[in-house]
Amino acid sequence: MAIVKEKSHFQWAPLSTKQLQVLSWWHKDSPVSDMDGIICDGSVRAGKTVVMSTSFIVWAMESFNNKRFGLCGQTIQSFEHNVLDTLWEIMQCRGYGVKRVKNVIYAKKGNVVNKFEIFGGKDEGSQRLIQGRTLAGIFFDEVTLMPESFVNQALARLSVDGSKAWYNCNPADPNNFIKTEFIDKRKEKKLIRLHFTQEDNLSLTDAIREKYKRNWDGVFYKRFILGLWVRAEGVIYLTFANNKEKYIIDDIKIEDYQFCNIGVDFGGNKSGTTYNLTGFTRGLKQIHILEEFRIVGRQTPKKLADEFIKFVRMCRAKGYKINACYMDSAEQTLIAGFEEALNKNRIGISVYNAIKGKIINRINFFDMMIATENLKIARHCEVTIDALENAMWNSKKGHEDERLDDGSTNVDTLDALEYSVEEYMENILANMEGLVA
Prior knowledge:
35% of the residues lie in helices and 22% in strands. The protein has 15 helices and 15 strands.
């Protein structure tokens, strides 16, 4: 198999002391070269990922030949976005010949050729994907987002003499297993721990750091900016709750919106069925919550479908351009009834299953939209205003971040809102000025 060298123009910024430590800790002249791994945790944009991934590849290529290594992200797609795009350039810049075949990267320099296989550790079933491998080293990106079973299975694959593990993450709940089983037990596990803040990234100006600080609020600010391992407690959207008027709009101009989506969450006996219309401003820079409907208690399918048709007609009568509708995928029979009602009434709207990604990711998105004032809400959407104002963290949930959903708060409306936006979250974040991914 031919491995082709390509030109790269990657330019390194000045490196901080901690970044230099990451790049050199494994070298034979280092006093800590006998350690079994390294953990780098701390703020976002602190300069951890690029030096961690680079150091891992250089260590592998200088220490082994004809061996297999693991590159792990929460998903393969997130690893590509967070790590691989930049790492590929750096490998080329260092003179490696690189070739990717599916999820295996072949790297060659001189007579040395090694394989780097990419894995996604998104759920408990992910551990099966890495079983049976023999690895000389493994790199975990966003390791706090991976199940403990996956991490342990991956570590069990390190059966080559001299193998090492590399852990990269932002802080999470202090009861997360990475904190309790690895950081707190780093001495007995022979691990180096380097805690990063944004001051460790010398390429950031003070003005850029200030922009980053405006991207989060509450627990996310403490974790992603201050780099603290703290619990998620109390009100989720504290800035919204304390400054509602800042986010409420009275003057709605239809021409401001590129398109709108409807989100639908189906309720039961003690919850509510909710329809939400969200408008996306031109260029996908802001989201505006424009219309809402909620009915509490179990209803007949016909009643729900009839109310949905009324809601759609009302939104269209106001001039909103409805692009699509995203519905709770747990209720396929109800969705079929809604589609039948749309067809019967000759209303052409595409209906999709809601993505229903991790709730914590949806919460993080809305926290950023609120912190950057890129979320607005029509004053008459009182139910949604109340739902955002009173959303709470579940303080009784072990080491996981979870939204309180015991009937005391209106989670149904939040779900419908999130379903309407979820398809476009990444695009919206990419368009936000000064955004930190």
